[in-house]
Amino acid sequence: MNNGIHSHPELAWKEFHAHEVLTNFMEKHGFKVTHHAFDLETSFLAEFSTGEGANVGYCSEYDALPNLGHGCGHNLIAISGVTAALETKLVLEKFNIKGTVRLYGTPAEEGEGGKVYMVERNAFDASDVMMMLHPGTIDYNYPIYLALDTVKVEYFGRGCHGSIPYDGINALDAIVSAYTNIGLLRQYMKPTARYFFFF
Prior knowledge:
Layout: H1 2-6, H2 16-28, E1 32-35, E2 44-49, E3 54-61, H3 74-94, E4 99-106, H4 114-120, E5 129-131, H5 171-184
Parallel strand pairs: 3-4, 3-5
Antiparallel strand pairs: 1-2, 2-4
């Protein structure tokens, strides 16, 4: 299955072969599969439940890079999600544990933000925990990954005559003060937290 996905690289939102291969496989292994889940043509949801209990979710990515194919290893991410879901199903059955395992087919992850569309559709809300494996070029146990968030701040002043500056509000003073003070915090920030300014 891995080799089949690797040899048929498909770009974001066009992962029809991978969608078919993965959903057929999960159905053959006893999962209830929703094709084209969350109103996304190449997304899917594969579920197996033994009753009410913990809900574990795994992500499988499967899109490729333009002109490079699976250079980012999404074929491996697809298979690792499948493997994790199958093993979790096995544990639920073997030890008579109540719970649900879900495999989320997450398309369009190379620059298209496929999971963002899924979050907007509440796709992951039913799972208590979500996991995904990503291949890398080095072997380490505790990697540091940085997320990205943007904060937009607007400053508003109030103009006044130069002879009565106390009647005005100088927005530039507030900007310079914030920039300086936040900049001074850099020496106290761990490598897991970084920030940058754009004006």
